[in-house]
Fold:
Amino acid sequence: MLKIGMKFLLTGVIALGAGAVFAGEQAAVKVSAEMFTVNNLWMLVATALVFIMHLGFATLEAGLTRSKNTVNILFKNVMIIAIGLLTYALAGFNLMYNGDNWVFGKFFGFGGFGLSCPDGAAGLIGYNGGAYTYWTDFIFQGMFAATAATIVSGAVAERVKLDSFLIFSTIYVALVYPIVGSWGWGKGWLDQLNFHDFAGSTFVHSVGGWAALAAVILLGPRTGKYVHGVSKPIWGHNMPLATIGALLLWFGWFGFNGGSVLSADPGAVSYVFVTTSLAAAAGIVAASLTSWKFQKHPDLSMVLNGCLAGLVGVTAGADVLSIKASIIVGAVAGIIVILAVFMFDRLHLDDPVGALSVHLVCGIWGTLAVGIFCDKYSFVSQLIGVLAAGAFCTAGAFAIFLPIKYVMGIRMPVEDEIRGLDICEHGMDSYHGFQIFTTQ
Amino acid sequence: MLKIGMKFLLTGVIALGAGAVFAGEQAAVKVSAEMFTVNNLWMLVATALVFIMHLGFATLEAGLTRSKNTVNILFKNVMIIAIGLLTYALAGFNLMYNGDNWVFGKFFGFGGFGLSCPDGAAGLIGYNGGAYTYWTDFIFQGMFAATAATIVSGAVAERVKLDSFLIFSTIYVALVYPIVGSWGWGKGWLDQLNFHDFAGSTFVHSVGGWAALAAVILLGPRTGKYVHGVSKPIWGHNMPLATIGALLLWFGWFGFNGGSVLSADPGAVSYVFVTTSLAAAAGIVAASLTSWKFQKHPDLSMVLNGCLAGLVGVTAGADVLSIKASIIVGAVAGIIVILAVFMFDRLHLDDPVGALSVHLVCGIWGTLAVGIFCDKYSFVSQLIGVLAAGAFCTAGAFAIFLPIKYVMGIRMPVEDEIRGLDICEHGMDSYHGFQIFTTQ
Amino acid sequence: MLKIGMKFLLTGVIALGAGAVFAGEQAAVKVSAEMFTVNNLWMLVATALVFIMHLGFATLEAGLTRSKNTVNILFKNVMIIAIGLLTYALAGFNLMYNGDNWVFGKFFGFGGFGLSCPDGAAGLIGYNGGAYTYWTDFIFQGMFAATAATIVSGAVAERVKLDSFLIFSTIYVALVYPIVGSWGWGKGWLDQLNFHDFAGSTFVHSVGGWAALAAVILLGPRTGKYVHGVSKPIWGHNMPLATIGALLLWFGWFGFNGGSVLSADPGAVSYVFVTTSLAAAAGIVAASLTSWKFQKHPDLSMVLNGCLAGLVGVTAGADVLSIKASIIVGAVAGIIVILAVFMFDRLHLDDPVGALSVHLVCGIWGTLAVGIFCDKYSFVSQLIGVLAAGAFCTAGAFAIFLPIKYVMGIRMPVEDEIRGLDICEHGMDSYHGFQIFTTQ
Structure:
């Protein structure tokens, strides 16, 4: 999310008679009040689109799991948005974008607690060469922050203790996510290595994915998933809900990737719309063919994951991949997401919604693909970014989860897990009045 | 929704060689064609976002009630959008914004029937200092109009007669909503008192809430809700649907509050996005803790209502509350919404979805909070606005509902209520083929 | 989707000192960089809105059919988006907009395979007088392309073979849709006749509708639909899902019609928002009254179709119909959609979701209505366009479907149809664990 496509913006400067000249370091470039307004507007629309991704995650996860745990999943996802925004306002924003207040190399910096617009409440400072206000900057980035925890939510579904998960999420979103993000988007050491992660294949999706991996290892599989070494299918309970989720995620991704241009630059934003959409489409087609071949039936949940895999895959390079490369990146993601699902299952790493395969594996793939398909970026730098994020996030996730595990436990008692988290944790059922098989 | 944040706009004026100078009283300020276009665009995007709130209300209400009444709820909500838009085109718009055609003090005015753009079909008159066209003005406001009736719909769910409800809604939306609105947004007597209701804590949410209160009193509780003075829980049938509703409402609220800036002013719109989102987040966290403490379990439906409570609460002052104040307003709303649910239940005022607690109580709270937290506004003025709206709306609702009650009845026969409104009113069931407990 | 409302844009030209002058034939008009940016932004937001219509179609179709075929419907709809985008990138875009590379009269032309921006990857060429980039042009039009196939999907639901349907869709979207579209929007022979189809009552909805008609004739009705000449009702399984679908479609239609202005022109886009919304509202009210009268109960599915009928009806003339005319067009559409449902049923043309009535009948109505209500356009030209599209699309659909029928079959075996396509085609059920009547 560094400055891109500003060439056009720069040429659009109009000398104004009065008022619309932006002060401050971050606004060396002067743009007209009109350009400032349209850039800022796009960032706000993109913010709303990223917001709706949380509904996408909530419905996708709920649809792909069992109805006895649905309230629990919805509850977690609603809480995570709130926790993400509030902790990001309290500290995360200033950890990620520290305004050059580095404390330890270019690895860790902090700009202080709370929101404080340098320009007062008006927030008119033109960030990114006059592209948006301080408040826009915060709310757009804040919507991203909660995403990482949402990814974990899917992987630990149907067995994690609610309070333990919420404590974990709060700390992970408040500390680990912004620190890793500062390495690249906050102009830290990875940025200096010319590491390129446009909208977050690594900084959002892998960051969530590594924590999901740590959590899945610590939690163990759902009761009844692996019996005498044999994997038993546990079906999702609501495929329309899962489909709503996947397509709302694509819808929101127009803001996630399109907004990461950080301006309304016509060439850059429209190009990102095209690469993003074609990668999603290629992920769908590739996953459907792969599933049809290997599973004999075309599996809807695999195709939905193929769509998301394409989107995660193209996210690191949506601005720089060629049209052909974006289709290849999406198609490869659609294939490897299915192979990864089988691989994790064989490893007995129980991930109810395929979050590891989609977000971790395709997040890595997308980041490396930038090094493969774009001459401007080095494969080695991309690999260093992937490994560094992996090491830090995995360590961070264990460091947070382990104490919680020993102090208060992270897993529901097995009898509650069998009865369902909705009744045991929330005292209600998700579809009251419907007759549902007790074995499910 | 009075002019705010236009300072920046004013500074952005560019003298144009030709054509883009707007005529008419409402367009004393000249802005460039570009600024006009971007302002107008934001208002149209906001219109679409407010529209989607109707889907949010429909799914929230349907999810929180029983499956035997779901078709009825969906039908009502779809009809209300249509009725709202058509009556607003016929009369409401010109009642609310009468163009200084006051008939009775600054309490009632009327600009004539139908839509007639002063500038012909092109509608290019630049309202609000060149911010949007006549048609944008109408369609943005028209989307708001139906909201008040939708709020009533939730409170009377599962027992109201369909035709009676639709007649009530038509009249209430056509007359009461725009008249009260004219007092503030139409530059009537409350505006002259410096009463501040930015996007409608009072003019939309309380206006709906007061009518809901009148309707609940006239209708009485659902059969089986209070047995020998004891309140029996009646569970909602579909929590994913309710969650979709609450999060779509938040999504739409970006347009509801953000669009109420009435321009794309970067500082003002982005600030409103931040206060709105932080209040919603604070409402979620506060409601979850309150519910966890009082109900022993964290209740998802309470948390969804906490989210909406925070949104309703911040709506009156989203433009003027400080960041801290917006968090406090949201958190307090998240607490009082739960207390209000218990209070109404103790009063045997049966409100299936908590509409009174969310829209009436938090609408009042949000309006008063502007007087508490902002020095610029007087608590007394805010209180006068709350009381005046309450008196007029309650009187209006009774005046409409009572004749309907005596002429054609407002309540379904008890045997139809028990069998379900879907079969009795619509001849169909909402989930055909699903086995559903008959006791539900 | 020809140029409209550019008058205002033209007046907004500002001489720029540097850089923002657009080269190329398609950009004879110079606009400021700001105007280019805001126009382009609206087209991208509209693209996202048209995208979400696919979720609307998926949920509407799924909700109005039986739960045993839900996964199949969702699968088809997700695949169609992907196929539509990829084939449009490969060939469709250059068939529809051939850049004056006509091969056969003004009936058929082709601009070559693949996407190739004349201006390189930046795509900055200002199409439509500086309104949007090459990439925006492609992605907006690409989102439209898949719609035609989606319409067919609804009509053939619950009995079509998956692989046959996907092959049909791929060819129809790749060839028939863009060729017919080129006649009007690609400046072909219908454009020269002054045929007016603003956003696609004919070029999208009828094009899908004619293929649906051909498919329904070739497929025959669902097993059990017509027994001894008597039509049996087959109920949809999920009315909340259907309602989500219809309202998401309306939401997306703001982009479908509003984006068809092809710029952010304030007058034109806001006027289209108003006519579109009032027609939908009139369709709802008219359909509810018609249904209430003829079916004795107000039927929710009829009202949802009335909403869509109003939207389809106004689509051809949303830019040129007067406000009153748009309400009449919507209301008439809301009536004839119900009559058409009964007519097709009497003809034993089994259309599970009413796609023929909504998209074909109201698409024709809307196109003719432009000739009836607007003096500028000739009824005869409109009729010629309707008939020509009908002849070509029906012939094209038969020409694609017939070989598929004889080579691989197009209909599921009756025992699989009875068991349900979800289990037989996909090996999974849509609501695992729920008790569902086996007769359904």
Q: What stands out?
A: Chain A touches chain B through 69 residues (CB under 8 Å). The first helix of chain A runs from residue 6 to 11. The longest strand of chain A covers residues 102-104.
